[in-house]
């Protein structure tokens, strides 16, 4: 975007939706062809200025999104939901209800389809800029909880790290076998030759010193300021394999409050896990950069995900289809790795949706049911702030946050592994 265009966006007093304006007739026709006559009527009224019709259209699309398994939802209904969210956001914006407008737009991004993504992104810029102006002028819509004048608060404070106490909460045999090797100033050529081609894990240090995220993301006030009003999906519960696990949509400020108060509710942690946060919130995207290592193999970047939560959050033993670099920005994590060759020995689930996850709970191993696990060789490490861990495709890994932790994972495929799973 040119500087003049960016300035126009910041100073805009209305939400412009050029894609919606041009694509609306075809989209409504497609929705109608799939039985969405009532939705089309409400969306048409919404475009003509009927706020209640906009809310009704959004509710109709929402019901379609929850009519069955997510993979069975027709793509046209995801675009219909985005359309309705844009209409709703326009009404909130015109009434000065900027927080409500942001929530509607975020819901359009999280749950909606790709057709209207540019309109959603540009609308968020307009609303965020208007909200910032209102706050600087002392507007009533300012978030008093997240923006009180106070000294900067740290997510993780520098303090003594007691390894003996940590060992008491880690899986058996932790940090007693082979530790993942560390390399400093590792060149791309060295990474490719020594680790990428052989499929070997490595911890790379001193590789994100220039990231603004290294200091900014440990500042609670900064995170509230740039993302506090944004809506994000979070996981609640021990992990995704547990029956009590669920997902919620909350504001980033609400999430931060849960993270900071986790000491009294550690049995039910809230985790922002495997979410493409940086596509959603551009200010946070500017705080990081894609490591050069992610271009090894001549493939392409698949996704950049955020992993943010309190101490005690666990990602159970599983494997992923792509090359993975896990960058530890704030806090510490314990990571255990088993070779990709140990598939049968780690007892993967037979269900399609969980076939990349192990039935073995490393925190409480049932040696009678899973006898092959106990003596398997593994690598492990404590991933420190500023370090990146390379996890080759199909390597099994278990991850536990030892402190409040904010990490970024970069998935990429090489030229011979371009299938998205």
State the end-to-end CA separation: 33 Å
Identify the strand order in the major beta sheet.
2-3-12-9-14-7-6-4-5
H/E series: HHHHHHHHEEHEHHEEHEHHEEEEEEEE
Helices, by number, come to: 14
Strand content: 15-25%
Net shape:
globular
- Biggest pleated sheet: 9 strands, mixed
Which class of secondary structure composition applies to the elements? alpha+beta
Mean pLDDT: 89
What does this structure look like?
It is a single chain. By secondary structure, this protein is of the alpha+beta class. The chain has 14 helices and 14 strands. It has a 9-stranded mixed β-sheet. Strands 1-11-10-13-8 form a 5-stranded mixed β-sheet, with no helix packed on it. Strand 2, helix 9 (188-196) and strand 3 (202-205) form a beta-alpha-beta unit. Mean pLDDT is 89; it is low at 4-8, 140-151 and 417-421.
How would you summarize what this structure contains?
With 421 residues, this protein is an alpha+beta fold. It has helices spanning 3-10, 18-33, 37-47, 51-65, 75-94, 98-111, 117-136, 163-169, 188-196, 213-216, 220-227, 252-260, 277-280, 282-285, and strands spanning 178-179, 182-184, 202-205, 231-236, 246-251, 270-275, 300-309, 314-318, 323-330, 333-338, 379-383, 388-391, 396-401, 405-413.
């Amino acid at each position: 975007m040119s500087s003049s265009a960016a300035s126009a966006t910041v100073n805009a007093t209305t939400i412009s939706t050029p894609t919606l304006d041009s694509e609306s007739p075809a989209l409504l026709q497609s929705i109608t062809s799939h039985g969405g006559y009532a939705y089309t009527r409400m969306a048409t009224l919404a475009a003509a200025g009927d706020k209640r019709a906009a809310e009704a259209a959004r509710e109709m699309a929402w019901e379609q999104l929850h009519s069955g398994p997510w993979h069975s939802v027709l793509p046209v209904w995801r675009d219909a939901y985005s359309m309705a969210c844009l209409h709703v956001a326009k009404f909130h914006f015109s009434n000065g209800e900027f927080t409500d407008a942001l929530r509607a737009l975020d819901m359009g991004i999280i749950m909606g389809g790709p057709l209207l993504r540019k309109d959603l992104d540009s609308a968020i810029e307009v609303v965020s800029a208007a909200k910032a102006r209102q706050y600087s002028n002392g507007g009533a819509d300012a978030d008093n909880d997240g923006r009180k004048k106070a000294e900067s608060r740290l997510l993780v404070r520098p303090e003594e790290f007691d390894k003996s106490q940590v060992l008491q909460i880690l899986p058996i045999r932790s940090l007693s076998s082979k530790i993942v090797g560390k390399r400093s100033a590792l060149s791309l050529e060295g990474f490719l030759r020594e680790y990428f081609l052989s499929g070997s894990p490595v911890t790379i240090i001193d590789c994100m010193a220039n990231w603004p995220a290294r200091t900014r993301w440990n500042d609670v006030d900064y995170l509230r300021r740039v993302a506090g009003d944004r809506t994000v999906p979070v996981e609640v519960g021990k992990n995704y394999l547990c029956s009590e696990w669920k997902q919620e949509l909350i504001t980033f400020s609400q999430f931060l409050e849960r993270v900071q108060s986790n000491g009294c509710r550690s049995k039910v942690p809230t985790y922002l896990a495997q979410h493409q946060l940086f596509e959603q919130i551009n200010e946070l995207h500017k705080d990081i950069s894609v490591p050069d290592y992610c271009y090894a193999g001549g493939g392409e970047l698949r996704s950049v995900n955020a992993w943010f939560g309190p101490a005690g959050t666990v990602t159970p033993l599983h494997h992923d289809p792509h090359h993975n670099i896990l960058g530890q920005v704030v806090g510490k994590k314990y990571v255990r790795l088993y070779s990709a060759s140990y598939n049968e020995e780690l007892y993967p689930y037979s269900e399609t949706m969980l076939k990349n996850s192990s039935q073995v709970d490393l925190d409480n191993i049932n040696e009678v049911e899973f006898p092959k696990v106990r003596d398997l060789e593994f690598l492990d490490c404590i991933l420190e702030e500023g370090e990146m861990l390379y996890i080759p495709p199909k390597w099994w890994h278990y991850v536990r946050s030892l402190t409040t932790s904010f990490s970024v994972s970069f998935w990429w495929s090489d030229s011979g592994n371009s299938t998205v799973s």
